[in-house]
Design goal:
With about 130 residues, chain A is an alpha+beta fold. Chain A is built from four helices and four strands; from the N terminus they run βαββαβαα. Chain B is an all-alpha fold and about 120 residues long. The radius of gyration of chain B is 15 Å and the shape is globular. Classes of the chains: A alpha+beta (about 130), B mainly alpha (about 120).
Chain lengths: ~130, ~120
């Protein structure tokens, strides 16, 4: 039962780089221990928050894409809740959305392919009467 | 570009749109009231038919991370702009509203008021 999740969290703006690395690596080991995989780590950098969170106006956004079971996400969320520097997090399941998007893309591709051979056929059809005339 | 700015300006123009719904009420027989089918109701003034931005531009992925896109469908007060003002189709509005709510949760968009 493997699902893909996006785990976005905000750490305090005053967190040094090493500490962020440490946090990410602990999360990665936690993921590895439960048989999941971290697909990507994206540091989105410092951003102004839309509203104050624990009296902070800014935050450093970090985005993890994780593949694994729901149990794993529970564990990760627990860790985030416990850790001091994390002020907010959000988990979103994305595999079904990705599947849907892939399907739409496939349908569009198929349509394009169906439409592509048609234009060469049309001029040929247009030429034929011209020849007979 | 003017197309993009339109949904943002829509809530500000809500005062202006209220008399229009009143005008439509008298000629309701034809189209739906307040819907995008304001073509036949616009006897005195022409109103362009609103079209779904996501259908036109073929944006399928409405992601909570894309706060610039979502911001176009959020009023100054932070509210989600209703479909009848923006012209977004129902399936897309549904996805849009969930994305906006997710973005609010992670402090990309405000719950109320302008982003500080």
């Amino acid at each position: 039962m493997n699902r893909t999740y996006e785990l976005m969290f905000i750490v305090r703006p005053d967190t040094p780089e090493e500490e962020q690395d440490k946090l990410i690596s602990t999360l990665e080991t936690a993921v590895g221990a439960t048989g999941g995989t971290v697909k990507s780590v994206d540091r989105m950098g410092k951003r102004r928050l839309a509203y104050t969170v624990r009296r902070f106006h800014d935050g450093i956004y970090i985005l993890l894409t994780v593949e694994g079971a729901g149990q794993l996400m529970h564990e990760l969320e627990r860790r985030l809740r416990v850790s001091e520097s994390v002020i907010k997090f959000l988990t979103v399941r994305i595999d079904e959305e990705q599947k849907r998007l892939a399907k739409i893309k496939a349908i569009r591709e198929a349509r394009r392919k169906a439409a592509a051979p048609a234009p060469p056929a049309e001029p040929a059809g247009g030429e034929a009467p011209a020849v007979t005339a | 570009m003017s197309d993009e700015a339109k949904p943002v300006s829509a809530p500000a123009a809500s005062g202006e749109s209220t008399p229009s719904t009143g005008g439509e009420r008298s000629e309701r027989r034809g189209g739906r009231p307040g819907g995008p089918g304001g073509r036949e109701a616009g006897r005195k003034y022409f109103r362009r038919k609103k079209v779904c931005k996501f259908c036109v531009e073929k944006i399928e992925a409405i992601d909570y991370k894309d706060y610039r896109l979502l911001g176009q469908f959020v009023a100054e007060s932070g509210k989600i702009v209703p479909r009848r003002l923006t012209g977004v189709c129902t399936p897309h509005q549904r996805r849009l509203s969930t994305a906006i709510k997710q973005a609010r949760n992670i402090a990309l968009l405000p719950f109320a008021g302008r982003a500080s």
